[in-house]
Amino acid sequence: MSYPPQGQQQPYQQQPQQQQGGYAPAPVHKAQGGAPGAPVAHAAGLNMKRRNPAAAWLGLPIITFGIYGLVWFFKVHKELFEYDRRVGDSSVNALLAVLFGAVTLYIWPLVVWCKLGGRIAQAQKAAGLPATCSGGMGFLLGILGFGVLYYQLQLNKVIDRYGDTPPGQQVSLVA
Question: Around Cβ 79, how many Cβ atoms within 10 Å?
């Protein structure tokens, strides 16, 4: 079965009504014909790339002399923004926090690191999963050197929720 290209409707489908004011149409609930107990899509975003947690944590940073750690930090923030645009884009802010953290006695990078846990927890909620990621746990494990491993494992839960959907493919968000 092939789907019509974006913007073209099948003859049996009605064109959606344009609404003024920029508000999205109300979600379909059980009383309106939706499946009972099925999560209701409230928004859409782009799926993230699944990474090997051990490679992101230890392998690639050793091979690249720590440069991959900066790349990982930037890409994770960028992908989280593309996944759920309801949160602000902090990818450049995160990279600047790491590069110029000495100016703030490394307090700014710690704040950004802890906020990453909250952003991952929000992505887990948007995927319809329980929010198991914690910025505090990420902070503690980050001090011990396991922060990237913890955060990548938590991100992979969100990515696994959508099965074999390729990175960059549009997925629905339920919360």
Answer: 22
